[in-house]
Structures are given as structure tokens and as C-alpha cells.
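Morning, I've got a small favour to ask if you have a moment. I've dropped the whole record in just underneath, so have a look.
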Amino acid sequence: MVTVDSSLTDVIGARSAKALAAKLEFSSVIDLLTHYPRKYLQLGEVSSESDLTLGQAVTFHATVLESTWIPARPGSRQRGRGPKGRSVVKLGLGSGSIEAVFWNQPWVAKRLLSGEQGLFTGVVGHFNNAWQLNNPSCELLVDGAGMPEPASGQNGLTFTDITAFSERMMPIYPAKEGLDSGKIRRCVETTLDVLPPIDDPLPSADRERLGLIDLDTAFRYKHRPKDMSQVRAADARLKLQEALTIQLALSVQRKQTSLAPAIPRPLPDGGLLSAFDAALPFELTAGQRNAGEVLAAELAREHPMHRLLQGDVGSGKTLVALRAMLQVAASGGQSAMLAPTEVLAHQHARSIQQLLAPFGEPGTLGAHEDAIKVVVLSAGMPAARRKQALLDAASGAAHIVIGTHALLEEKVTFADLGFVVVDEQHRFGVEQRDVLRRKGGGGAVPHTLVMTATPIPRTIAMTAFGDLDVLVMSDLPAGRSPIATTAISSQEKPSWVDRAWERIREEVAQGRQAYVVCPRIGLDEDEPDELDDDGDGSQSSGGSAKESKRVSAAVAQVEQWLREGPLQGLRVGMLHGRLGGDEKDEIMRRFGDRQIDVLVSTTVIEVGVDVPNATVMVVLDADLFGLATLHQLRGRVGRGKLAGLCLLVTPVHPASRGFERLRILEASTDGFVIAERDLELRREGNILGAEQSGKQTNVKLLSLIQDAEIITQAREICDAVVAEDPSLAEHPMLRSMLASLDSQRTTDYLLKG
């Protein structure tokens, strides 16, 4: 019996299945059924000339007006391949016309006769002031009685029974060269004809409560609709199915995590944490207090905390994490903090050590009786220091171990790892987070806190971080200065760029410091080195091909040019990811000690770097960065009592889409507002689609922007089912769905954020 898991070869034949596998990577019935139409045609409705766009791939319904064979010259022939020339077929549209040109195919002029109707698929061009399709494929619409077969050599010509669509709409599918919409549609038709009704995994009570059609009807409506009302009904059910696919795996994962054993780390009375709070020279914000109370309560439980703490740039997340680490240390436990870069790992270590300095180190004269030891572990450390850090972690001498990916190595062990903190989750995969969690001893799972300064819209939080309970800190510490942001088009206003360098000189003259950020390390590389990876660079933001191929600013060259030119006489330093760990740490230490006036850097300074004296940032080729990264970058200035200034320099024109994105940062300093606008501008495929995972995905219709309610419904349904039936024993269809889909593949790319 045919099922959704059946091989396409067994359903539509080896030849068609091979074409679908080669062009679209389809292998099963469900792969084909979830390749949804991109639009529908109602026979009788025809396109108009005003609908055409140069370079657009189109499939439209048109009527043949006339066909003409135009030889290249009298008697000219291709060697062994017949006449040389072109068949020009004039196609009538609802308004205007377009010419379809078929090169070296004289049979076309004889076969496509005046009055015949067809579906023509090709790319719109323009020649001699007229619209043109170059070598399109043609699907002639004929009466089913005695429907002809394409003659030998008539490639690109197929026939479709027009009567089959007299009472329903014709789906037009996303196609590939050599695999047009008509071929895909015929494969779908064959499959639906032999496929028995599909069982619906959604409990019938939920389906009735939400007013949804069943899954089998949804697939058939989607591919064989009579009208758009059936398409809308199908979309509602299929979107929920996609959301269920994601949320069911996440609900099961959350439930399993909540049932795992953990060692309680209760909030101590007195001790170092109380002394630490009393010594703070400032008041905790409301957000910090609330987050601290939530974490303190969850650390005291017998099951592992699994939290996402999100707060805008400068909201004080590190302080919240440190207070939680002190709570864990009070019970004898260790904490591991995973940072994405060596610069950030060492920055965290310096900041935490400075905050704990008044209490001394264990074993030193005058140290607090509960003093704790903080160590750093990174790949770039000298061998002796690295060996000592490993020993301190394994013996329990180190209460807090801060490191990069080096923490994930098998040889890194802990005496009693009770708490894992992952900073900037979007730089890590869920599997890396779990590597650390598996380092807990005695079968207990460490409590986990994932932090991000990238504000996450609610719908993404429910999907990309769906296995975590979300905690938001929306306020900023008192006294934090505002950051003014200005986008500058170097093409339109080069004098403004000159003024940017003058502004840096003025700030330095007053004892302040500045950053200059570039997208590349050096000009000898073929690709950008340290751009953000959120898929929101110039090409996806509307940049032209010319813009995307331009030579962007490089740290090595910009540093030399500034030092010898506009910023001559100032102390200019350079920082990027290819420097050694100690060298990067030394440069940041010198910048923090005001021994460097201007730091030219890549995005290694994006998160966590805290130099309150830095007041100005100039970002070169700013349109090549994503909005989230730019928001993070500008958070490096204005961290003290002095106002911050961020100048976004780009060569793109002010009227371009890339420049329009930068204006969002001019208008708002609210990271959550920026994140919402960023999501609206970005292609969602980069978040939920194959472009992010590199594979086919189960998400084709669901929109994070438009379908928040559907995602919420799916989460509520899955949580309710899993709460009552964790093993899904009473829900065989849901259990089958979870088993049949590659849940690790699906959740991996989602949970990486």
C-alpha cells in the first residue's frame, strides 16, 4: 500500500522519480506532497503585459496569435542538426503580448497554431522594445479526447487535458531547468490518485476546536483546489502541521529535561553572595533583581534549570549570571561559562575577577572564607597555563571556569559541574551546549543558563529556542548614556566621512577612545572573514551584483591608512580573529588601560567588550552587516557616563534597500524593535528554511511574522499532550510523526538560532 513514506520510484516510476531526485532532492511521497504550488491559474484568466518584470521566471496562460519561422539565411543549416534560425510565436495576453522565441526549432512554427492555448514557462527578457521569452517550455491545453503525444525531437512540448481543469484551478509549482511545473503537476496527480487517505496526527478534539480540516483533505485541497477558499483552508491545516512538527519535538525535549535529576543548589544565608551584593557600588535594576530571583529558585530545584536569558546590549546579564555562579559555589559546585571568542572569554574573566577582587583568592592572606577561584581555558593559551587550568577544573580548585570551544574537549573534566552558562547562544549549536551539560558528575544534569544580547522576537523564541524557558531583561542600568547613530553614504557625502575621522580626533583630544570596525581582515582573501552569519548581508538586503562584488574594507589596510593618514599621530591598534589568544588579550588590555586611542577591529568586539571610555564607533561597509550585529557593535560605546556615537559608513546609495536598513538603527535604540524590523526585512528561509540548515526542511508555509498564533496553538497542543502522556503511548499518530521525521535534523538548525 502507498503511504507518505513510500519511495517515489514505486509510485510514479523510475524515470520521473530520478528527475525529481536530481533536480529537487525528493525521494518519498511526502517530499513531493510538501512541494506546494507557488500560485494557481483559473483557465480563462490570462496574464497582462503589466505583470511582466525583466528577469522574472514566469508561467502564464496565453493564446497563440501567430507563429513564424525565420531562417538565419537561405539554405543555412547546423552541421548534422537541421535548419538554423528561430521560430517566433506571438502570444496574446489579457493586455498586450509577448514573443516566445524558439531557436533552431522549425517544428514549433508548424505546431503552435493560431488560437491554441497553453502554459508557457520561461524567463522574461526584452529585445527591440518588446517583451520576449527565450526558449520557453510549452504545455498545450487540448481536449482530452485523443490527446496527442509529443513527436520525436519536440523537446519542451507537452500536452494537458483542458477539461480536467474546467471546474478547478491549475497549480503552478516552483520548477527547475529541465523540470517544469507541468511535469511536477503530473507526478503529484499520479501520486494523489493512488494514495489512500492520510491519517491525521492532530487529535480530533483539537481539530474541531480550531475549526480545521483533516490532514488528508488539506493535502488534496492544496494540490487540487476548486477555488481559493479551499487553498486557504488547506494552508491553515498545513501550517499548523509544520508548527506541530517543530513544537512536538521541542515539547518532548522540554519534558525530558524537566524530569532529569539535578543537584539542588539552594540560595545560601550570608556567605560570599551576600557580601558581594552589599559591596556593589550600584543598585540592581528591576530586571536584574527579577532574573536573579527566578534563577535562584530554579537552581534550588531537584531538576535542571534550562533557561534562556535575553537582554539588550548593556542590560547586565553577566552580573546576573555571576550571582547565580556564586550561589552554586556556595554548595561546593562549579560553573562553566562558554564564550564564542577568546577576546570575550578573557573579557568576562577580567570583569568577574575585578568584581570579586575585594574578596581575594582562596588561600591568600585576608581572603573571604568563601572566596572563589576563576580560571580561563582557551586554545590559544600557553601550554603551562592551559595544563594548570585543566588541573584546577578537574580537582575542583576552580569554582568558575571561563572558556571558548576548548571547554568542549573530551579531556576537560570537572569535579562537580553544577551550572553551565552559554554566552551568545547564536554562536553555538545545541549539540555544543549539550557537550558541556554531559560533563556533570554522578548522573546529575547541570543547571543551564543560555544568554543572548540579540533580542529575539517571541515567535523565534518559541521555535529557535523552544526547548528553553525564556526570561527577558528589558531595562538598562541607571546612568547608561544614549547612543546616537547616523548612516553615511560615502558615495553621496564623502565630506561626512572626512568629518568622521575629525570627530575621532576631537574625542581622543578629550581623553576618550574609539573603534573602527571592518568586515575583513585583509584584502588577499577571497571572501569576508568575520562578517556576522545571520544571512542578512548586502545581497539579501537588496544590494546589486556590482555592490556584492566590491572590495570591502579590511582591518590590516585600514589600520595602516588611518595611522599614516587621517589619524596620524594617534595610537592606533589592530584586533582580529587570526591573532593569537595572548596577543588579542594583550591588545584589549592595552585598549582598556587607555594605551591605544583607536582600535581597528573586525566583529570580534561585537559582544561583551566593556571599555566605558570608548565613545565613538565608525563601521565601514556597514550595509554588509546584519542589523543585529550592528546593534551589538554600537553597544560597545556609550557604556559609561559619556554619550556614544555610532557612524555607519557605506558606499551604497541612500535610496537603496541596504541604506534603508541602516536607517532603522538611526530611528531606534530598542533592540527588540530592531529585531522585529530585521525579521520583516529578512528572507525567512534564512531562519527556518533549507538555506540555514543546508537540507530540505519540514517548514514550507509557516511564517514567523504572520503565524505567531498558529505557532502558539501548536506549542499549547503539544505541551498539553506531552504533559499527560510523555511517551505518547495514547497518541500513536503523534508518536509515529515524531519517529518518522528526522527530529534531530529539524531541531538542530532551529536551536542553533
